[in-house]
Amino acid sequence: MEDLELLPGEVVNLRLERVGVFYGSTCGLDPQGGHGSLVVTNYQMSFNWGGKKPICVPHLNVTKLSKRDRATDKRSEDWDGGQGSAANPLTHKMGMLHLERRDATPMTIILFAASTLIDCINDELYPNPTRQCSKLFETLMSYVFPRSLTKVFAFSYRQQFEPETDGWKVYNPDDEFARQGVLAPNSGWRVSHVNHEYTACESYPRKVAVPAGIRDWEIKKALEFRANGRFPIMVWKSPRGESVICRSAQPLPGLFRMRNKEDERLVGLIRAANTSPAPLYIIDARPHTNAQANTVFRAAGYERGSYEKCEIVFLGIENIHAVRKSYTRLRELCTSPPADDDERWMQNVQETYWLQYISKLLQGSRRIAEFVMLERASVLIHCSDGWDRTPQISSLAQMMIDPFYRTLRGFEVVVEKEWCALGHKFSLRYAHGGSSDKQEAAPVIAQWADCIWQMMRQFPTAFEVNEELLLELIEMVHVCKFGTFLFNSECERRRAGVHKKTVSFWSHVNMNLDRYRNPHYVKYPGLIFPETSVRRLYVWEKLFFRDCTSLPPPQDHCPSIELESSASHISRQLTELNGSVEKLSKENAELRIQTDRDKMRIRELESRLRSLAGEAFSPHGSSHSAGLEMGQRQISAESLDSCYSPAGSRNGDLGNAREMWASPTGVLWSSETRGRSIFDLDESWHKAVRLRAEGMKIDGQIAELVCDVVDCVASQLGEALLPSANGEQRSSKAARSSESDSSEDQDEEGMYSSDSKPRVLARETSSDPFSENESTGGSAAETAMVEGEEGWMSKAAARGTNPLQDPFGLHPSENGNMEGGRRRRRGARVKDVPPGISLEAPLDETSAKWIPDQGVSQCFKCKRSFDFFNRRHHCRSCGRIFCSACSSQKSRISRMQIDKLVRVCLRCYTYLQRLESDLDP
């Protein structure tokens, strides 16, 4: 058997071999467990079974313990090496212990007998299991139900910690009063020493904050009117205001409904310390019916008119008995095996009422926070005795209000102040020190921690504490490993010498801050108001679904798997982010280089356009002064640079997709080009910059927009040189065009031939109004779509039509041969549009080439991915697939004989509108 790694101060009292353990809710039916050895120490029992993770159960986590002896039955064969009664004629005995943990998980410990006659004779080697079972039972009884709290493991634990991590110094009332401004001269509050020797109230701390106008002898009179002498005291004050949160127990007017003027004066001074016109809200955490019952049976409650300018508010939070029953039912539900009615799971959870009780606590705490911070009012909280529901809602409200309590240090302070210093019945609620009163036990701390976990789910970055700290807090409250949660009050802990003889739980936390710190915490100075409806609450899985094997051995410095996983995840994200930054930097540098090249091309184009304008206008004198004036209106390099600069791109509007795509097309196909100036094309460069700012590949778009400039200039220059009724000059213009086309065949890349004759920049052609570079990549469906369009271009070229100027085959060809079609595929120009237009569409172009939407994952134009919100839409004209923004227009399509308005893309819409305007008589 492997040696158990013991804690400082832990001592082994008993070792047993040949032990079987069944655990879980299926004990006796389908056992889960194994056989191995059992080690019992003064802190826990540890079951080791064949290299698997040991089952460690602290003694004070056991709530039930019973013993039973019986003859070996058939089940023992499974744990006896397969030796049954046929192999062993002896009458075997075995001992059996049944225990139940606090999480409602039952366990059965079986001590097996010897398997051979020799083993039975050698009693020292294999003792009688019945005697072993009795010895184990007596040992466990002394630890599970200790006669006094001084017998628990906390007084034997001797872990050493650094002085700066001393948990007993976490909470200093003077420091907390100073932080809240209580010690200021005009705060209206003072620190009273009326309870210095715990003579006034044993469950209160030595230093309490009370209104400055109340005297100590009046406090002693007032505490007689409150249950257990727990008179109203201040526990939190707004550092920037006068609103406060106070705590107390319920008043006891007696059967004759007596009044206490000192208590009324104390409550009146609490209200008067706040100059806000809001009343003092007396928060009764109980349901109104329970408060009325206490009025009858305990002669407790408020008399009408006893407290002026006060308003009583009932929160309707159930008592510890209802909470205990709800907790037990939910535990049993979560640890039970899946049943046939598993579909009723949500209904079964609802019937436990656990989430409803959590909702009530959060609602009450949020209501208090709203009173204090929104109405600037003071509140006085109490329930029956003021040490169960009162610390719950008081501390939760302070966490919602004060961001300090959402930090690790602040969390330690609020637990020490609200639960330890101001009194809570730890011994009775968690059965410490042999307390057997089951009616007083209740999971109050677990319920409070569940509320914090619900807030952490809704505000994952608002709390510096993590889930592991909450779970360990619940565990340590029960197992008494530390002295922090021993006894019921500060007075009892001082008398028992807890600070000197035990270790604080916060010392353990401060030594392992990284383990309990939320790595996603972001300091947030504001308020948090969580959602309190039951529909927003969840069952805490790590609290209610844990079993024996999920609890690791209680080591003080064991690493946090969750934290390591989170840290490694963050490290991977940082590595990916650094790689992305480097990639973006490289792309940015390449973009700058490309931008510089584009600027040089623009300047070169500008100079050549100027020379083109000069050559064109020089032979014509004054008769062409209008054309000369138009030629002089060139695009300045400064305006192009400013429009193309990154700063200009950031200032551009990126949201108007319709305007973005319509403008370049409108320049090319518009019949109104005659009336436009070159300065109107400045907007096209803005559009190009916007496209680049959106991260789109616009190499093809740059070339397209440059073509827009050149085509418009060439069109305007040609029209300026063209007399209205001069057929000779029109033929001269056609001759120059064919000469330019022949030079394009020789030098396809450049804008000028070797003899410096001007010609128009060629455009990448496509079969429809879309002039996008198809080499940018895409899905297989898009590739097939492009291949189909190339075939369409070949057909159009064979017919002699220009696929770019006449994508739907409406214009007859000037030259029907193949050479003419090839020439038009290379050089598409506005001036090549023939004056005659035929309305007769070819037979194979009367319907759109419909692209199937299978495999198309993004919009053809803007490249946005399709999802639930960004849906696919077909253009009824070209058949491509677009998003709603890129296909938002509707138009008639005469070539398809569609007279009603149908959805088309922006490019087809522009083309169809221009076409209709040209066809209008």
UniProtKB/TrEMBL annotation:
Where is region (Disordered) located?
67-87, 724-781, 799-835
Leader sequence range is none
Renumbered to this chain, the Polar residues biased-composition regions fall at 767-778
| Classification via Pfam families | FYVE, Myotub-related
What EC number(s) does its UniProt record assign? 3.1.3.95
- SUPFAM superfamilies tied to this protein: (Phosphotyrosine protein) phosphatases II (SSF52799), FYVE/PHD zinc finger (SSF57903)
Q: Which PROSITE patterns match?
A: PPASE_MYOTUBULARIN, ZF_FYVE
Amino acid composition bias (Acidic residues), ranges on this chain: 741-750
Q: Which residues form the FYVE-type domain?
A: 853-913
User: What's the name of the protein?
Assistant: phosphatidylinositol-3,5-bisphosphate 3-phosphatase
Q: Name its species.
A: Guillardia theta
